[in-house]
Amino acid sequence: MSQHTETLVIGAGPAGLTAGYLLSKNGRDVVVLERDPRQVGGISRTVSHNGFLFDIGGHRFFSKSKAVVDLWDELLPDDFIDRPRLSRIFYKGKYYAYPLKAFEALRNLGVLQSTACVLSYLYARARPIEQPKSFHDWVRNQFGERLFSIFFKTYTEKVWGMSCDAISADWAAQRIKGLDLGAAIRDALARSLGLKARPKPGEPVIKTLIESFRYPRRGPGMVWEAAAAKIAAQGGRVLLDRGVDGVSFDAATGIWTVSAIRGDGTRETYTARNLVSSAPVRELVDSITPRPLSTFQARALQYRDFLTVALIAKVREDFPDNWIYIHDPSVMVGRVQNFRSWSPEMVPDDAYTCLGLEYFCFEGDGLWTMADEGLVALAKAEIGKIGLIAPDDVVDACVVRQPKAYPVYDESYRDNVATVRLELERDFPTLHLVGRNGMHKYNNQDHAMMTAMLTVENILAGYRRHDIWRVNEDAEYTESGFSGADEALTSERLVPRKVA
């Protein structure tokens, strides 16, 4: 026997829970299904191991959208703390502050290398690659070939597991948007000379240069656990241990039928008028019957997976960084999180520290399938090589694997996503894709939330009032929440369709 709801949401990450919370707040019947048997939050959950807390990656709570910030405060009004941002780059045995400090970078690189970087930058600006297609092309145009090879190539190829020449320029434009070398140098000189002033009201802030952020005192999972509780209090339901494996749509009645399987093998069926999905596009399309024509394109979409090795160690000499980017090619680790610096409450004993070593991989490859003991041994050896802590000081460890952490921006992803989107929007007017994996779009947490917020507006209005695909990294579309959203629609405005 099936259970009926007005709106069914697939996935209890930031996008799915935002949609569920706002719909239930507006008195709409909503059910959120989550595959994880224990936790909500998706990649933004907080993991607990023997009293130590850590993120799957680090999640800053910073947004240019007032609507998003207000929603964070509404969900968790009393538990945010202000944290100073400090991050560094580790490259060839030396640390570089990030954002850069000009004199430190000059000293570390040396006068000859620094001069070569500036000349390379000037050459790239004078003779740019026309219509850059790859990540390499885009960064070379913006920063010069030499800086690309020092500060972009190794780390980026660790993250994506492919050559920078095979990664679309879209990813660079999205993730580094708003930052140019001239601005970075001016900012770095001001920092080095102690002349850095607070931004004036209304002055744009480049995300990569922010100096502080807010953070839940016991990790980002606090926000999403609170959201799930509020959905239930408002009459909605958040159901764990439900992996959606079948979706069909009856055009005659406008009703969706969704099947979900639980860990014990039992199956449940739900019907709904609206379907909101933050599931990976590839998985969603594969679950729809009859198969969409764009199934081939959906199956071509790729994902990068991720694992964290959390090392708990005795403190001999603490360091203040929130995280450190490991650009050095001599180790496999890509980034190191220092969870005590995210919040002191993440570490229950002052005599210990908890570091999260992040390894980027593909599900099923050698790293992913390595036994936990092997991963811990690797992490201990590499943290010792970097010099952050002594391997012998490690007293406990935990490994967490995160599949489909990042949608891959390869050379064909844009065309594949466009084909899938066109068919789904044409044939299924009450299907709404939201979030990072739901849209195969490398959105941060706040942008994922905004896609859900605008989707709820669409459902409540009864037609596609907003084009949520305009929500992107640092996009003006999200600067002030909903205001201006209609004006920011693409020139090829979607034809309004009834969705509720």
Name its key features.
500 residues; alpha/beta; FAD/NAD(P)-binding domain; Polyamine Oxidase, Chain A, domain 2; 3 domains; seven-stranded mixed beta sheet; 19 strands; 24% strand; globular; disordered C terminus
How would you describe this structure to a colleague?
This is NAD(P)/FAD-dependent oxidoreductase. It holds the Pfam family Amino_oxidase. It comes from Methylobacterium marchantiae. The structure is a single chain. Helix 3 (102-109) packs across helix 4 and helix 4 packs across helix 5. Strands 1, 2, 9, 10, 11, 12, 13 and 19 form an eight-stranded mixed β-sheet that branches. The longest helix has 17 residues, at 445-461. It contains 18 helices and 19 strands. It is of the alpha/beta class.
Number of strands: 19
Strand content: 15-25%
Q: Superfamily at the CATH H level of the largest domain?
A: FAD/NAD(P)-binding domain
* Alpha plus pi helix count: 18
**Uncertain segments of ≥5 residues (pLDDT<50)?**
473-500
Helicity, as a percent range: 25-40%
Termini separation? 24 Å
Oligomer status:
single chain
What value does the Rg take, in angstroms? 23 Å
CATH architecture title of the largest domain: 3-Layer(bba) Sandwich
Give the class-level CATH name of the largest domain.
Alpha Beta
Report the principal-axis shape. globular
Main β-sheet: number of strands, strand sense, barrel status?
8 strands, mixed
